[in-house]
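User: Show me sequence and structure for the first protein, then do the same for the second.

Assistant: Starting with the first protein.
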Amino acid sequence: MKRFYMINYLLCGICLLWMTGCSNMLDEMRPKDKIPQDALSESDLTKLLNGVYAEMEELVFKFYMDGDVKGENFKAGPGFSMNDPMSMAPSSKDVLGQWQKCFTALKQVNFLVETYEASSNKDSQVVKQTGGTGYYFRALIYYHLVTRWGGAPILRKRTYDVVPISPEADVWNFIKEDLGKAESLLPEFTDRFYVSLSVCDALNAKVCLALKDYTNAAIYADRVITKSNFALSTTSAEYANAFISNSNSKELIFALANKRSTGLLLFYQSVNDIDPTWDYSPSADCYSHLYADTSVKKQDIRAKAVFGADNSRIIKFPNGSTGQFVTNEQPSQTPIVVARVAEMYLIKAEALGATNGLSTLKEFMNKRYATVSLPSSMSDTEFQNQILDERHRELYAEGQRWYDLKRTNRLDLFTSLNGRNYLMYYPVPQSERDLAGAENYPQNDGY
């Protein structure tokens, strides 16, 4: 089944819902939104799923490069200014927009979860997919919340009531609970543009790594690595093809297809526009040194796919014009990558540690370099430095650098933090605190 994600899908889904199997019931009911969720047909559920995918595209896109800005991967582009990439305040419009987007998406995702939980036909594959997708997306939303804000209100269903912020540990537990439910419902991988058991395993691996549950982080990552559906790229072109429209790259575990007719989500506008202005350029240090040869690794295949000859552009998301490393037939439909197999190799290696993870790291690096000559053993610090360097190279412009340094407590690698360690948590938006009450929404320390 082909799905074309469009911003108007949710509206179409609701309209079609009114016109399909429940139309007679709707004609007899006031208000119309009181239709029992267990009366939705499989066709209705498919359309509602499409609407939620479109909503999640907007959420993931909103956060996509945030970790690169705060992770000092970017400098201001020709159409932007950026004095302090890490600075945040409770009054920040960007922080408010990110917080609100999480809960806007959560409302729609919770509708899926509630629909599954209310269903009397839980053996149906479509109903299972609805529930599994809902639980996975809810876990993903809360992963974005907990890694940035720590504590957050835990909403198991839609409500207009004020729900107080729960402690960070409770949010992590809620994520693990939802992933456990998703794991029991989702099908095996069939299509990189649909939620599957493999992307659930990938998020489980990230969560376990964040919580220092290294045993399970390695297990979940290995579940993905050993699937024949996925493989590491071995050339620059193969690596670049993970970030173009209609990608069939075996790097991809899951990506949001980003096929829209309105409300376009354009990666290249931020880093590589065809117009003379865009927001971000590679930082001078990244451009000069990120993919440079070292004594142990040479000729990184990723370099050609990320930076071009113009040191003001990041070409990882090709804009469709001439001079790009690979052709992107429809740059307005660049997929929003959520999980790649490369990260699973790096998670497994990190989780296994310097003694047991070196072979996994070598296996990964042999696919990324023309030559690699890692030593036969490393100290824990040396190994962590290699992992962080590889994650920096591999996941540049994919929003991960800031949290990688936060979760590993390598704040020494930030150059603009200047002792402001409180910036490792985002501020709770002041306007939200005003609405919910300071006792329900306490502010994170330092703001």
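Switching to the second protein now.
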Amino acid sequence: MREDIEFATEDGVTLRGWHYSPEGTDGRAPLVVMAHGFSATKEMYLDDFAEHFAAGGLGVLAYDNRNLGASDGTPRGELDPWQQIRDYRTAITWAQTQPWCDPDRIGVWGSSYSGGHVLVVAALDRRVKAVVSQVPLVSGLTNARRLIRADAFAGLRQMFDADRAARYAGQDPAMIQVAWEKQPDEPCALPTEDSHDFFLGPILDRATTWRNEVTLRSVEMFTEYEPGAYIGQIAPTPLMMVVAAQDHLTVADLTLEYYERARHPKELLVLPVGHFDAYVGAAFQRSAPAQLRWFQQHLG
């Protein structure tokens, strides 16, 4: 059963999402806390994972990141990774007060941008007893340099500087597309063809609150974000990492390199697909049961 929920952050922003009750369980149950990746909202297949976990006996708390979707917060489209990490931890704190959550059996799940966030959360917050990180960002700067040509990167930094000066002068933050809409050479945050196909494809029939824009400052913060630096500190919390072998958005070889830096207990699942394929079809049918097993094993 799914119910709408909302909770307040420490700075007074209301975050909204869903709580899934685990099938066959009454009262306090293990819980998985999840949020989505860069600009994405919970309707972009988080419900499929949540339903699968709930059918396997786990409660799930899925919510929209601040400034996105059903959640409050301004400026709209601002994606601050460290604020999103603090909000994950607030979600855990709030869930621990609810009658349906076993406060000692909480896991975290993240994908893409939030796949990086859960690495940091698990390293810093020992209330987390298990983590699944799917197709994660592990190094913002290195990943950005894979996505953006060197000659274009200098121009991007000039855009960052101009935006900073404009904000200091009292202007609103500059905005940028998440994915290109008409031409592949349009300025955007995620300049891959599969990003275009995912965000501007059939998913829009489900994710009606998604908007194809974020603040330019969000891209700057992306380039400054290094969640993989925390991966060696996650142990002894159990870590499962799911990598898409054909991923060229959060590039697979870089993710695999960082996985080797993690300490046990850990498990790696490599899917023979691209980044966005991990949410659907045969990849989901293979991955979701493995993730459920991981949480069942370590949350009890």
